[in-house]
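Justification of resources, computational component.

The compute hours requested in this renewal are based largely on the per-chain cost of generating structure records like the one below. Each record pairs the submitted sequence with a full structure-token output. That output is archived, and it is also reused by downstream analysis tasks.
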Amino acid sequence: MSSYRERCKFRRAVHDSGPRKASSIRLVVLHSAEGTSAAGVASFFAGSAQASTQLAVDDRECWRMLPDLVVPWGAPGANSDGLHVEICGFAKWERTDWRGHEPMLRRAAWKVAKWCWQYGIPARYLSDKQLANGTARGIVTHVQVSKVFKKSTHWDPGPGFPKDLFLIWVQNYLAEIKSKRDR
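The structure output for this chain reads:
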């Protein structure tokens, strides 16, 4: 039985920028994978792709490509201080398309909540100004990183991504994690 709380399968990405300290992590960066298979994303990053992220999630499973304390090649400007998750969908999707993949969105929200808890990242979206200041902690998207740092032209996860619902799930899962840890 698959659950969004399962351990991720592992397939190492080829490219990264080496180790980092946990104290340097301040961001969670959301991506759309531009595909529908987390295993496919893991295979792509394990090949010759000039990119990498920590996780990829789809409706059925999660794949880890890099440890948290390794700098990915995910979104220039937010790599050394960001944890990156590929959500298997398309930037062109409308909100209804994304909503048709609730297991995937919940799986990603659970993983993001765990990161928020583990690294003291508030479960909130940052403004462009907050992202640019280099110290604020929170959740951002690849399109936002592209806009702020002007080092790529990616526009994922796209305007149809249900950011509001996703954040509610992250916040609810984070509260659940905290309540279990406080027992």
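The radius of gyration is 15 Å. The helical segments are 38-46, 95-99, 102-119, 128-132, 142-149, 163-181.
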